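Hi U.,

Before I forget, here's the chain from the pilot set. I'm dumping it here mostly so it's searchable later in email.
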Amino acid sequence: MAVSFEPIVTAAKAPSLDRDHRVYRASQYPYDLWFLVASFIAFIALCRFISFLCNKYLKRERKSSESAVSNDEEKNSQSANPGRKLRLSRSLIALVNLYRIIAYRLTFTVGSFSINLAEIVVCLVYIGANFLFLFINTKNVAGKFDITYWNNRAGAIATSQYPLVIALATKNNIISLLTGVGYEKLSFLHRMVARTALILSWVHAGGNMGTRFANDKDEVFLQTGVMATVAFTFLFFFSLRPIRGQSYELFFYTHVAMSLIILGGTYYHVAPFVDGTTGRSYGAYVWPCFIIWGLDRIIRGIRLIMFNRSYFGFGSGSTLDATTELLSPTLVRITMKRPSSFRWSPGQYAYVVMPGVSLLPFEGHPFTIVSHDSQIASNEIAMAASANGVSTRTSTTYWKELVFLVDVQQGFTKRLAEVAARRESIKAYVDGPYGRRLHLDSFNALVLIAGGTGVSYTLPILLDLIERVKTGRAICKRIVFIWSIRDPSYIQWVSDAIQSAALLAPSFLTVDIRIFVTGSTSDSPVKTESDAEQSSTDSKDELDLQEAGPSSANEKNVENVKIFGTSPLSTTTGRAPLEMILQEEAEKANGGAICVAVCGSISMNNTVRNALRWPVAGPATVMRGGASVNLIVESFAYA
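Structure:
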């Protein structure tokens, strides 16, 4: 079918001051919006660079100050005291802590969704900028409001943001590279930018439903535009949180299919129209999306082949066999030999691809890497474990191999649990790692808090930091590891790894491990990793600390449970008193720097945020010599 754009060409030849204004503004305002977006990204990148330099400087300064302190009594004399005078020299540190409290610890929670003030401000500024450029200067040369000034401008602005939408959705993108923010942390921006573009698309379509639909209904550019808008609308509904949570696979496949329809339809819709500023087709906003998406796929493909050479037949050795274990009806542990060139940092995750379990051969699911990429020799770990009655196999596993703890839901994870129940080994390969790298070397103390499977995030941080302190790369003197679980039998998930970490810790590093059991305790002894092969637990690994109720002296029952051979571990029944613990640890930091990392339910994360506001980390406390507190929050996410 031959397509004619003669009406467009003829209109372009006829001189019209109104038309010239409309064309200029519709083409200029997308550039102005991109200037704001690029400036914001550059600002965050600059802040990241300054933060990196400050961390290097502070690490050296804190290390020097630690060596200058001769004994604990002298240290204690430096601790924060409410009666001490304000020290102006700590004003900058106090302002930084005030910003952290306001920007990241003031949150708003609706159901399972939580957002902090910094994210709210970014969203509101971006949305406001879009609609500001949409509605300003919408009067014609006669001074009257003209709907044609903004309906087509809405389409131009929406189309111009497509590259940003795609970049925020890809695993390997320049925004993460510049800002240091992992793509998973950018997902809320991806959704916000996409939904803003969808609203603008609706405005554009609604403003053209009159004469344009009546006169050009047979034109390809109009048909493809309608197709793209309808596909965009379907994509929005399939991306809602209930669908993502209940049926991730449905969300994923419809997302890919609708995205291709949107990009293809939009390209053919805008290609006939010319940018009045540069003279280029508006298709110049769309075809870069395919390059961004394709480049991400190429990078992922190269990494897949590089990390899994034996799987694809390019290297020596057998294919990657993953061992599966059903630790409980709702938890699977996957153990894989680490590919020779695969390196990761604590808190990062990888996509695990199991063609024998997945519906499609290259279907990947993200899971946090529970193990640590250790540089310590395996025999050193094994000897320390063997001397203290700890299983050498499981202790070295968490330090040397790839380990994942998988929460069983529906779809892929449910099929994986069926495989694990039969204790089968399956072929698997990995894509990653993803997620930001943590820089914790400059902190004097570290508090790790986890709920249930949140230990997947905090355990590798514990293992890594002990090793870094042991080798002189970190200055930390105290680590507090808090884990809240529903049943004491959950300890067997990572018991030997925790024991190995404690055994390898140098004498000057205090490692305080506290485990709180929020559910009913069992009369049977807690099983070690080596006993886990013969039994499984009947419990859930999801955790909501608020359901445990308030803790009191009568509810607490301390039990010495022998899970490490002859080494007892103290467990406490009842809810963890996080506010009290954090206040105590902040005081013990003696005016230094303390980092708190938490991974758990929304209620647990919010409890920690609230505890680290005022007065624990308030500016007045800091200026009186109190600790500077940094907070890292990870949440349970859909797999």
